[in-house]
Amino acid sequence: MYAIEFEADIQNGVVKLPEKYSQLDNSHARIVVMITDQGSRELAESALDLSNCGIKAFEGKDGMDIQREMRDEW
């Protein structure tokens, strides 16, 4: 297995390979997509929102105090 890297626009869910990689047509590949625009960051941040979750066992306690207590037991 080997890796290539290039930049491309995604249009209608399709990424067009540059002409210099035409030998890869009709082959299987593992694709990693890295996106750098603002729209993708907003999507990633909103995908997992745990702000309304509460753990009753820790109510009214400071997280740092809990960690210090746990470390003192060692």
Provide the gyration radius in Å: 23 Å
Query: Mean pLDDT across all residues, rounded?
Result: 79
Query: Structural class, judged by helices and strands?
Result: mainly alpha
Order of helices and strands: EEHH
Count the domains: 1
Low-pLDDT stretches are none
What can you see in these coordinates?
The structure is a single chain. The protein is built from 2 helices and 2 strands; from the N terminus they run ββαα. The mean pLDDT is 79. The protein has one domain (10-72). A hairpin with a 2-residue loop joins β1 and β2 (14-15). A two-stranded antiparallel ribbon has the order 1-2. It is mostly helical and 74 residues long.
Record the SSE blueprint.
Elements: E1 10-11, E2 14-15, H1 38-47, H2 63-72
Antiparallel strand pairs: 1-2
Short description:
With 74 residues, this protein is mainly alpha-helical. The protein is 27% helix and 5% strand. The protein has helices spanning 38-47, 63-72, and strands at residues 10-11, 14-15.
Task: List key phrases describing it.
single chain; 74 residues; mainly alpha; two-stranded antiparallel sheet; 2 helices; 2 strands; 27% helix
